[in-house]
Structures are given as structure tokens and as C-alpha cells.
Amino acid sequence: MKFALIPVLILLLMSCGTKVPFNNDIRERFDLNTDKDLRKVQFFTSQTIILEKSKSSGNQGTTDAGALVTNSNKEENRVIIPIFTKCVFDGFGPNGELMLRFELGTGKTISFSVKSKEPTAKYYLNAEWTVNQGGKLQYGNEQFSTMSSSGNAYLLVVTRRLQKTKRKDRVVKGMKV
């Protein structure tokens, strides 16, 4: 029984595609230059992206018994996009960057862009980066911050190689005089 499962597992793994970084070379090779073409592509993230937003408030005072009281409230809102999360193309940004959607909702897109003009340059997470402080970006029409490690996240696509060969064999018996 174990030996019967091995070929099935191998066939299953071979039928899956390979995740590769999305770049301008792939865009040109597959002619993905219009909205219509890019909407047909399934994108993935190369690593986990964490968006954070926090709000703090508080006050100080005394109680009737004369004790000093410090009251502080902190509200945190995090959006976690795990590694290999599927996303779809939503449109082009003002500078030609790709706007990708991970969920439904107004403004819930994240932009990705290339950092260099090389054809093999990857499409990285786009944010307003500050040294040692991470980045800031809009998500769902709210301002979020992200850790600098999220800046290493880039887009992946699945590529498959399909090859069909049609062959017709005929065995010739020969001729006698």
C-alpha cells in the first residue's frame, strides 16, 4: 500500500508549478502589460507582512483615599498577511506600481514596485520607509506602520511547464520480391 502512494505523490508534486519571483522579464515573456492580463494572474507573497496601528490614551489622578492612580489604555490593530498568501491584481498606482488586493473592502490594497530598472528586479512591498523605524502605508483608508522585515516581501507567481507531444508510430513489415 505504501509503494502505491509514492507514485501518486510524485505525480501530484510534479503537476504543481514552481513559485518564482514576479519581475518585468516575466511580464514581457507572458505579455502581462494590461489590467485585463494581470487580473488573470494569481500572485503570492514571499514572506509574512505585518501591518500595525496603535492608539494610546491615559490620565493621572488621585483617589478619595489619596492613592495616586495612572490610567492608560492602548488599542492595537494588526493585519497579518502570512507567507504565500494569495492576492489578485486590482490596478495600477499613480507611479505604475502594482496594487494588489488580499481581501474585499474599500482601499484594502497594497502596492508593490520594482526598486531598480533591471528586468529581473522583483516587485517589493511599497511603503514610506524610515531608517530603523519601518515603513508607513495606507490600508483600508487607515495609516498603518510595518516592520522593516516586511520590506523584504516581494511578489511570487506560479509557473508551469507544459509540453505535449503527439506521436504516431507505424511499424513497417518490409517487402518481398
Radius of gyration: 26 Å
Amino-to-carboxy terminus distance = 56 Å
Question: Structural class of the helices, strands and pairings?
Answer: mainly beta
Mean pLDDT: 88
Give the overall shape, derived from the CA principal axes. elongated
**Main beta sheet: strand number and arrangement?**
7 strands, antiparallel
Note poorly predicted spans.
7-14
User: Number of DSSP strands?
Assistant: 12
Number of helices: 3
Strand residues, percent: 35-45%
Number of domains: 1
Largest sheet strand order = 1-12-2-5-6-7-8
List its salient traits.
single chain; 177 residues; mainly beta; seven-stranded antiparallel sheet; five-stranded antiparallel sheet
Explain the layout of strands and helices.
Blueprint: H1 2-15, E1 18-21, H2 24-29, H3 35-38, E2 42-45, E3 49-62, E4 68-81, E5 86-92, E6 98-101, E7 109-114, E8 123-125, E9 128-130, E10 134-139, E11 142-146, E12 155-159
Antiparallel strand pairs: 1-12, 2-5, 2-12, 3-4, 3-11, 5-6, 6-7, 7-8, 9-10, 10-11
Protein described:
A seven-stranded antiparallel sheet has the order 1-12-2-5-6-7-8, with no helix packed on it. Strands 4-3-11-10-9 form a five-stranded antiparallel sheet, with no helix packed on it. The chain has one domain. It is elongated, with a radius of gyration of 26 Å. With 177 residues, it is mostly beta strands.
A few lines on this structure:
This protein is mainly beta and 177 residues long. The chain has helices spanning 2-15, 24-29, 35-38; strands at residues 18-21, 42-45, 49-62, 68-81, 86-92, 98-101, 109-114, 123-125, 128-130, 134-139, 142-146, 155-159. The longest helix is centred in the N-terminal third of the chain and has 14 residues, at 2-15.
